Amino acid sequence: MGAGEARLSIDCGSAGTQAVLAWADGSAHVLSFDGNPSLHSASYVPANGQATGQPAAFIPGPRRPVEDATAGDGGGDALEAAAVPLRRVAGEAERVVGQPVRDVRVVVPAGWGPRRRTWMRQVAHRAGLPQPRLVEAPVAVAGYLIVAGVRVPVGAFLVVCDVGAGAEVTVLRRGPAGFEVLATLADTAAGGTAVDHALADALIGASTGEGQGASRTSVADSVRVAKEALVSHPAVTVPLPDRPPVVANSAMLDEAVRPVAWRVAQLTQETVAAAELTVGDLSGIYCVGGSAQLPHLAAAIAEHTGVAPIVVPEPALAAARGAADVGAVDTAPVERVEVPVPPVRRAAAIAVPGFASLALIWQCLLTAERHGVLGLYYSVTVNWGEFTMAAVMALLACLAAGTVLGSLIAARSPTPGTRTEGGRVSVGILAAVSLGAAIAGLYAVVTSQYFGMPVGPYLKWALWPIAPVSVMAVAMALVAARQWRVPHGGWSALLAAPTGSIVAATLGMGLIQYSLTADRWPNRILWIDTAGRVGGLLLGVAVVMAVVTPLMFRLILAAPLAVIFAAIVSRRAAGMLGVIYAIAVATWWATRLWSRVLRPAPPARTAPATGPVRADMSPGGGV
Predict the structure, then answer these.
(1) Which terminus of the chain has fewer CB atoms gathered within 10 Å of its CB, N or C?
(2) 3-state class (DSSP) for residue 100
(3) Residues 296, 258: contact at Cβ < 8 Å?
């Protein structure tokens, strides 16, 4: 294939550089350097006539800015030195393709600002590469996960732990146009370099009787080989320059890894908290990078967060592979919207308040007492509490159907914004609020016309009680449209009102209305009064079920409140009881809005357990 169809992605890590060639047909080729898929990023460049091995001419890698990369008094051409691995990659890519590649993507850390990005572009230009597209490493990894078949719906959150020479942990949200970085934290002392240093000190100490940190450079290559071998072997022999070889065992590697693993786990927890999310909001935690397969790393993250992380296959190449395909992920067309069929539980959450609303308004109309002379009505006695509750139930039924309404609208809308998850939910909630208010207003108009009375009082009792819930629903629609946060359990679960409370409230108000309007024959007075008291008890229990969630608190509060409601049941108190239930529903919605959408509880921080093993993993130990 031609160079115009090829994409070259380069991941210049602090320790190694990986590169991938990808083509439009989906095929990919990992570039190899002397038979190794990874190329050392560090370079030595003579400065002011010095020998090549002088420390002043050591350039750690292309990711180091010019003021950090040039060491010593004279310094060297840091830009030229940083371009050495990229120039090697460009040459290998040209050899494979047959001509220079014009589409180049370079992976950079998520926390980089304009200065560092400018530095990387200058390095690429010095290496002879065309103007590269800079792709943030966690975004590239997320794109690789999508291509690999991992299900990450729009609006979902995930964590990428990039553990290479250092560690960078990032929280991402998938939006309609791609992935967005919400929070990122990095620690250069929490990666493979820190493990190498600790293992080098242990090996040098074992050979001389004491640690010699200054000799780390001379044994760096031997330490890296030993570290990779100890992942799958219990012990290896490590040759050391100018001293006898020593035996490195898995216990030495464990001692070197535990502080680093503990710090990466802490960094993961802190990044999730910085994004104002809980662990329950995440769709997964994924580990990538050259040091992602270190022992104890996954266990430490699982212990801190309560979620077992997934180590991506070929973790060192995940960012480079993802950067090669990230354009296709970002520009993928939005799929056709399918209108979901609600399961039985969700259908019940929609149907129960709907039928409750119809039952209450039907009883309110049929049992209203008309007062007049010679067939002319001059007043009508209506149970305003029952009328109010009918309007509240109508709104709850519409909100429970909000996601279905949104899907119906999106399926027939030409606007792309309404086809995303956030757009569908937002439009659905707004449509539900409008429909619920329209039904409540319709109740008022129909009832006033049925009795031939002014519509003003009926509108007041129908619309004012549902106003607080409507305002909070609009706030939820705004959150969904901006895709700031997806509540735990999804929007459908959040919009569903408590069915038990609705059933209890409907039965309670129905019994109260029956006790107020039934013919009081002498032999039925006791049963009628009892029905009214039972209705008050049920309505009190319904209020507690709407306001309080823990079962123990429900049991404590339900008894006194139910007794009070049963005691005050009367024609005058009926309206007040209905308004109290409307306030309870508004309180329930306010609690859901605050605790699940605006301010979900941050993840609990896990303190290290006591004991010799945990002491070795403390943040201060060797990091």
Answers:
(1) N
(2) coil
(3) yes
- Give the relative orientation of helices 192-208 and 250-274 as an angle to the nearest 10 degrees: 150
- Please give the Cα distance from 425 to 321 (Å, whole number): 33
pTM for the predicted model, two decimal places: 0.55
**Rg, Å, the chain Cα set:** 34
The 8-class DSSP code of residue 81 comes to H
Cα 289-294-295 angle, rounded to 5 deg:
155
95: which 2 tokens? 């050899």
Q: What angle do CA 306, 307, 309 make, to 5 degrees?
A: 140
User: Please, where are the H alpha helices in 54-187?
Assistant: 66-69, 78-97, 114-126, 137-147
Pairing between β-strand 369-373 and β-strand 282-288 as defined by DSSP bridges:
unpaired
List, for the chain, all residue ranges whose pLDDT scores fall below the cut of 50: 1-3, 49-57, 65-76, 209-214, 329-339, 603-623
CA–CA gap between residue 256 and residue 262 (Å, rounded): 11
DSSP of 288-340, one letter per residue?
A: ESTTTT-TTHHHHHHHHHSS--EEPSSGGGHHHHHHHHHHHHHTPPPPPPPPP
Report the alpha-carbon distance of residue 226 to residue 231 in Å, rounded.
9
Phi/psi of residue 588, each to 5°?
Answer: -60, -45
Q: Which residues pair with 11 in a beta bridge?
A: 18, 107
Question: In angstroms, rounded to a whole number, what is the distance separating the alpha carbons of residues 148 and 15?
Answer: 26
